[in-house]
Amino acid sequence: MGHYDSISTGRLLMRRSRECDRAPFAELNGDPQTMLFFPRTFDRAESDALIDRAEANFKTRGYGLWALEVTATGEFIGFTGLAPMADDVPARAGSRSAGGWPGARGTTATRPRPRGRRWTLRSTGSG
Questions:
Q1: Given its phi and psi angles, is residue 62 left (phi above 0), alpha (psi -120 to 50 degrees) or beta?
Q2: CA–CA separation, 55 vs 14, rounded Å?
Q3: Per residue, what are the HEC states of the chain?
Q4: CA 78 to CA 70: how far, in whole Å?
Q5: Residue 102 pLDDT level (bands cut at 50, 70, 90)
């Protein structure tokens, strides 16, 4: 399996996390409005642990959660990528898509929607 440390689109850079992403990521994870469709907000330690797990997945699986950066400005706005499914998930297919914690102005999260037995998260707006 190939390893992808970054993927670029016309507007976004999906890249591995950097130390400088931890503070803005924790800020997004601690915001009740940003986390509206998630079970709860995360504190700094939980947010950092999520980055650590994502990086561990890149090392062991070759994929994980990429940090999202606006190409034109270099601004960190959240994350996207693939995450392994838990063993107790019905119809486990191995991995699922993960949506973002979008944080840029003009970017909003949409309600998770069922697709078969999986859930997907979509972002709309400036990203």
A1: left
A2: 13
A3: CCCCCEEECCCEEEECCCHHHHHHHHHHHCCCCCCCCCCCCCCHHHHHHHHHHHHHHHHHHCCCEEEEEECCCCCEEEEEEEEECCCCCCCCCCEEEECCCCCCCCCEECCCEEECCEEECCEECCC
A4: 10
A5: very low
Ordered structural domains, the chain, with CATH: 6-124 (3.40.630.30)
Q: Is-contact 92 114, C-beta < 8 A?
A: no
Instruction: Please name every residue paired with 109 in a beta bridge, in sequence order, or none if there are none.
Output: 123
Percent of the chain with pLDDT over 90: 43
Minimum mean pLDDT among 2-11, 27-36, 70-79, 91-100: which range?
91-100
Instruction: Specify the pTM.
Output: 0.65
